[in-house]
């Protein structure tokens, strides 16, 4: 292994949640008088912590989202998770191999701890991630593209940033990894390659990622 620790983004990398999440985020914003298409939600918010959604809406419209916005949005998303969420194709086999080989890994997500755990429970990925392997932007205050989350996760796991690899699928996540001084492999399963151009390496499937990690 070229790296001592692998840090996985969650949404879109471990669980196939980006289509569900952005569909409901666009609907919630539109209902509140901030017309947003699914494509615009992906463009503006994919990979974001919730505070960034609030910040962008305030900047663009001068209006604050309601105090209960996050709760309403997450209730809808979690209900959709229960019905539709699946793991990203090939990620279970990848995690099984990393576990068998004794390679340290964790998840570092812009999503809340609750969102991570709900998604992992529904998809069965909870068997790979105990509490000590789960890190959220809630832990640091500033989400991606700030490097804080990745640096915090690496420190808690006991590894130097330059010995870490981040696996990401969003431009914000790639920016955060680069700012943290970490290599980053960009997953192009859903995100166009040109939007992840600053990544160290690009890959289209989890099977190919497994080969890159050898």
Describe the secondary structure blueprint for this structure.
Elements: E1 5-8, H1 18-31, H2 38-45, H3 50-61, H4 69-84, H5 91-101, E2 105-109, H6 113-123, E3 134-136, H7 148-157, E4 164-168, H8 171-179, E5 183-187, E6 201-203, H9 206-212
Parallel strand pairs: 1-2, 1-4, 2-3, 4-5, 5-6
Helix pairs in contact: 1-2, 1-4, 4-6, 5-9
Structure commentary:
The chain has a six-stranded parallel sheet, with helices on both faces. With 214 residues, it is α/β, with parallel strands linked by helices. It has nine helices and six strands, in the order βαααααβαβαβαββα. α4 packs parallel to α6.
Low-confidence stretches: none
Mean model confidence by pLDDT: 95
- For the largest sheet, list the strands in their spatial order: 3-2-1-4-5-6
Helix content: 40-55%
The number of helical segments is: 9
Keywords:
214 residues, alpha/beta, six-stranded parallel β-sheet, 9 helices, 46% helix
Summary of the model, kept short:
With 214 residues, the chain is α/β, with parallel strands linked by helices. It contains nine helices and six strands; from the N terminus they run E-H-H-H-H-H-E-H-E-H-E-H-E-E-H. Helix content is 46%, strand content 12%.
């Amino acid at each position: 292994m070229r790296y001592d620790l692998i840090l996985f983004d969650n949404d879109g990398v471990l669980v196939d949640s980006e289509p569900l999440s952005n569909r409901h985020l666009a609907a919630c914003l539109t209902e509140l008088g901030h017309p947003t298409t699914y494509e615009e939600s992906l463009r503006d918010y994919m990979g974001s912590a919730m505070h960034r959604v609030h910040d962008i809406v305030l900047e663009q419209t001068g209006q604050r989202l309601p105090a209960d916005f996050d709760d309403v949005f997450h209730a809808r998303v979690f209900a959709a998770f229960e019905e539709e969420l699946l793991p990203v194709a090939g990620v279970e086999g990848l995690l099984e191999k990393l576990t068998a080989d004794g390679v340290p890994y964790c998840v570092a997500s812009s999503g809340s701890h609750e969102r991570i755990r709900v998604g992992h429970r529904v998809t069965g990925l909870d068997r790979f991630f105990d509490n000590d392997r789960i890190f959220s932007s809630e832990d640091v205050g500033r989400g991606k593209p700030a490097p804080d989350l990745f640096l915090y996760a690496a420190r808690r796991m006991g590894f130097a940033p330059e010995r870490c690899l981040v696996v990401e699928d969003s431009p914000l996540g790639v920016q955060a990894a680069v700012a943290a001084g970490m290599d980053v492999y960009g997953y192009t399963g859903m995100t166009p390659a040109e939007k992840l151009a600053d990544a160290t390496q690009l890959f289209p499937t989890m099977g190919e990622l497994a080969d890159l990690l050898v």
